[in-house]
Amino acid sequence: MAGHVAARGVSADRGTALDFAVAGPDDDAGIRALLRASVTPGSVRVAFTREPSYDLGEGLGGAVDHTIVARNGGQLVALGRSSTRTLHRNGAPCRVGYLSELRVHPDVRLGAKVLRDGYAYLREVLTGDDASGYFTSIASDNTRARRVLELGGRLGAPAYTHIADLETLLVAAKGADPHRDATLRAEAPVDRDELTAFLQATARDGQLTPTWDEARWAALERHGITPQHFHMIRDGRGIVATAALWDQSAFRQTVIDGYTGTLEKGRLMVNLVQHALGRPPLPAPGTALRQAAVLGASTRDGAVCPALWTLLRRTAAARGIQWLLLARDARDPALAQLMALLRPRRYASRLYEVAWDGSPRFGETWTGAPFRPEVGLL
Question: In the predicted model, what is the mean pLDDT of the chain?
């Protein structure tokens, strides 16, 4: 499992033996402590936390979740999670499992046998799960995790097959521009059925996009998203673009642990430049990012993309949100337009199909459709 893998400590220490179990209510404090201690390396070191309660993030977007923990002498030292949802694969709905939150305490060193044992236990836990296959994501600059997991098949652990390079765009929020915003039409009231039909039709064009139906809306509403949160742009035919901002800070956060290299030494200078450009500063270590995932970003006409992002950035700034996040395939034809329009920071990761002995495997190969997973569901 990966999904922002924190793989420090994964090594060939054969002496480590762990006891695996399905996470229960009594594990909440231990899980949250492990997430705080597990830092993803890179030029910006971050921890992905789940405060004030791990369970608040359960069932995100209608997921069926399975979380397992590992203990060493009674101490919770490792964590892994599988979340199964109905997503689009090759243009059709498919039950897909996402493996995430692989965390290992930084003071613990694990060998290949423990990795094999962990996946074998997960396979038992997932007996009866209806996923057709599983995927995960790993930060491109997390070379240690990639090296370990990409060789997993040779070590008797799962085979990680690279399927796409993903760019997560961090877009700065921006206040209203009266000259530009004056050209925007007032938004019409949201028609739930019309919005659902538009989202579903455009989602079929991408890989790992969610299906849109009443069950999806019911699941999203449990975590604060309703059709009324969506911005829509119309022409004479109906909706031509839509997206919503999903602030998930009430149940999961991205916390800046610190910086390395030039960013560590030059953060003050970078922030002076950011201020001059009207962009958010690099946060101080220990700070949680004020960010929101862009959900359901869909356009039928690229010409309206600037107007849609003006609405999103203006709304974000009004809500005190500094950064907007959107994930796109590095091969996506729309990526070049987004880069030129938004000038975002970029966070590169790799998507992998994951298969191990006894686990389901996707049948047909992936088509050439671009991968567009919702960053709020990763």
Answer: 88
45: which residues sit within 8 A by CB, 6+ positions away? Answer: 39, 256, 257, 258, 259, 260
Q: Which residues of 100-136 are buried (b: 16+ CB within 10 A; e: fewer)?
A: bbbbbbeebbbbbbbbbbbbebbeebbeebebebbbb
CA nearest to 215, candidates 205, 200, 230? 200
Q: Is 181 in contact with 357 (CB distance < 8 Å)?
A: no
Q: pTM (2 decimals)? A: 0.88
The pLDDT, as a whole number, for residue 213 is: 96
CA distance 164 to 197: 27
Give the CA distances from residue 113 to residues 157, 301, 372, in Å, rounded to whole numbers and listed in that order.
8, 51, 34
pLDDT computed for residue 190 by the predictor? 85
Q: What's the rounded Cα separation, in Å, for the pair 172 and 323?
A: 5
Find out whether 24 and 168 touch, Cβ atoms under 8 Å. no
